[in-house]
Amino acid sequence: MVQVGLTTWDMGNHSNARGDIRAENVTETGIDLVIRICSDTRIVRVSVSWLAIGCVADPDQ
Questions:
Q1: Class of residue 56 by CB neighbours under 10 A (exposed 0-12, middle 13-18, buried 19+)
Q2: d(CA 36, CA 52)
Q3: Per-residue pLDDT for 25 more than 80?
Q4: Percent over 70 (pLDDT), the chain
Q5: What does DSSP assign to residue 59?
Q6: How far apart are CA 52 and CA 61, in angstroms?
Q7: Please, which residues have CB within 8 angstroms of residue 59's CB and are 6 or more apart in sequence?
Q8: Would you give the end-to-end CA distance of the chain in angstroms?
Q9: 54: left (phi over 0), alpha (psi -120 to 50) or beta
């Protein structure tokens, strides 16, 4: 179980900021942090943080 959050989102102000951030391909030794943005969003810099919290008994918890 991995929780991902934005810590810095530096963007242009001529369009709406729209995007998605998620953890994919989570294994015991690594993850891929994926940031997807809409075509008109202009990003200068993005920073993220993440927290891996191990297995849970029920994935909905």
A1: exposed
A2: 21
A3: yes
A4: 98
A5: T
A6: 14
A7: 1
A8: 10
A9: left
Measured distance CA(34)–CA(23) in Å, rounded: 6
Looking at the DSSP assignment, which residues form a beta bridge with residue 20? 36
Angle at 41 between CA 11 and CA 32, to 5 degrees: 85
Q: How far apart are CA 21 and CA 33, in angstroms?
A: 7
User: Are 21 and 34 in contact, with CB atoms under 8 Å apart?
Assistant: yes
Decide if 32 contacts 40 (C-beta within 8 A).
no
Number of H helices, E strands in the chain: 0, 4
Model confidence at 32, pLDDT cuts 50, 70, 90, reads: very high
